[in-house]
């Protein structure tokens, strides 16, 4: 008959052969700790991979590459020239979407070609209000001059583009600038106009903004009222007569 082993001796044997107790060193086997215990590293506490089974390694999730900060790329001279000329072409076509794309790519809204045309000046003379807004919002120089030493305002007034004239008068453009022909915007709205309602409106806008209605022009020595009267533009003359009498 085998003698029974006292419980205390059995416990000591188990201790020596397998485990030394809480927090002790494990000999001959991997220490198993309950999930969530203090000795068990949490998945977020270590960037290294954890072993799940012999020979299997779980890779850390790949992070997407970070985007570099947006910077303006320097353009080669030939690229800049091409962008600028393409902007001029888009302006003549009144292609606002293409003009916007070119400006975003680096085209200069103040670039003037060999005929001293810029996208801004073209928008004014052709009455392209949306294109004009695009150039203004991208730094167009409202004091830019064309080959006649004329402003965008003079060009718009000559064509009777009242809506463009109105928008330009919201800037600090000089309403009384004189071009190399001796004309102001008011003079050109009269002598190159036809007295129709759009020219009457243009003249009214210029007068309301402080255009000089009394001085003789450098071009022909006539006052704006005398010019309108000589051309038979009665409605334009009426606007000017009222302004002179005030």
Automatic annotation (TrEMBL):
Biased composition of type Low complexity is found at 27-61
Q: Which InterPro entries match?
A: Ankyrin_rpt, Ankyrin_rpt-contain_sf
**A Pfam family it matches:** Ank_2
Region described as Disordered: spans on this chain: 24-75
Leader sequence segment: 1-23
Keywords from the named record: ANK repeat, Repeat, Signal
SUPFAM superfamilies given in the database record: Ankyrin repeat (SSF48403)
Q: Does the keyword ATP-binding apply?
A: no
Domain of life where this protein originates: Bacteria
Q: Where are the ANK repeats?
A: 115-147, 148-180
Please indicate if the UniProt record lists Signal as a keyword. Answer: yes
Name this polypeptide is given: Ankyrin repeat domain-containing protein
């Amino acid at each position: 008959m085998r003698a029974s082993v006292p419980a205390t001796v059995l416990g000591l044997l188990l201790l020596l052969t397998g485990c030394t107790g809480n927090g002790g060193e494990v000999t001959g086997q991997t220490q198993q700790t309950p999930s969530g215990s203090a000795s068990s590293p949490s998945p977020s506490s270590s960037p290294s991979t954890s072993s799940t089974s012999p020979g299997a390694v779980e890779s850390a999730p790949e992070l997407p590459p970070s985007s570099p900060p947006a910077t303006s790329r320097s353009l080669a001279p030939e690229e800049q020239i091409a962008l600028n000329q393409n902007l001029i072409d888009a302006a003549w076509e009144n292609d606002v979407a293409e003009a916007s794309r070119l400006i975003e790519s680096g085209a200069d809204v103040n670039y003037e070609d060999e005929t001293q045309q810029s996208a801004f000046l073209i928008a004014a003379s052709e009455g392209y209000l949306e294109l004009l807004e695009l150039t203004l919002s991208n730094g167009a120089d409202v004091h830019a001059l064309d080959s006649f030493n004329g402003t965008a305002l003079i060009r718009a007034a000559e064509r009777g583009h009242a809506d463009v004239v109105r928008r330009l008068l919201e800037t600090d453009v000089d309403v009384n600038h004189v071009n190399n022909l001796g004309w102001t915007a008011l003079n050109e709205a009269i002598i190159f106009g036809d007295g129709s309602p759009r020219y009457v409106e243009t003249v009214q806008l210029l007068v309301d903004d402080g255009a000089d209605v009394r001085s003789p022009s450098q071009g022909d020595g006539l006052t704006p009222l005398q010019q309108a009267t000589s051309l038979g533009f009665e409605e334009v003359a009426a606007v000017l007569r009222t302004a002179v009498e005030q």
